[in-house]
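Async update (no meeting this week)

Hi team, since we skipped the sync, here's where things stand on the single-chain job. The sequence we agreed to prioritize is pasted below, unchanged from the tracker. I ran it this morning and attached the output directly underneath so nobody has to dig for it. Comments welcome in thread, and please keep replies under the output.
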Amino acid sequence: MAFMFENLEVYQKAVEFADQIAALTESFPRGYGFLIDQLNRAALSIATNLAEGNGRFTKPDRRNFFTIARGSAQECVPLLEIARRRGLIQEPAALAMRERLEVIAKMVSGLINGLDKRDV
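Output:
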């Protein structure tokens, strides 16, 4: 892999999550474009902010992008809940996606906490 962040497990999980969301929302009916767009953008934002944060040289810059990534993971939670309530996704699928988000959010928090332990 050409970029170091591509070796991060959390980045790989985030890309996989975004891909799963893209596949999931393809089946949403017309009239839910607002939800499709917001859910896809939030899911994609997790991986893109992890990548961008890893490209930054200062701890504050890195922390900022990692914090945005964690916020995007949390943003997906109510969006998935609305999709579940509207009958666009079934309960088991919603639960599985939520569990993936919990893992990703914890891993991103670990990245953020790890910044405090490093000198550079």
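Quick observations from my side:
Residues 59-85 form the longest helix (27 residues).
The chain has four helices and no strands.
Reply here if anything looks off.
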